[in-house]
Fold this protein.
Amino acid sequence: MDIADLLRALANERRLQILNWLKDPTANFPPQVHGDLVRDGVCGLYIADKLGVTQPTLSEHMRILVQARLVIPTRIKQWTFYRRDDARIADALSQISASV
């Protein structure tokens, strides 16, 4: 993993907010018709709505988080659902600590 990708992903308040919301998806998002909030993740449309951004803007934020491997995307029908990769996040934080 490239430390620059990781730092870029974490250097944005909106992306940090998304990661925070995904810590407890059932508390932060309404129930979904398709996909389980915890097992499958949160639909990108719900994240965009809560963040107050357009779908293309959210897609760019999520692309960066996926590239840094901090979230895991899952396709269900025509939607993409996102969940945190908590093991990867813990590893990333250790990697940052070791490099400073």
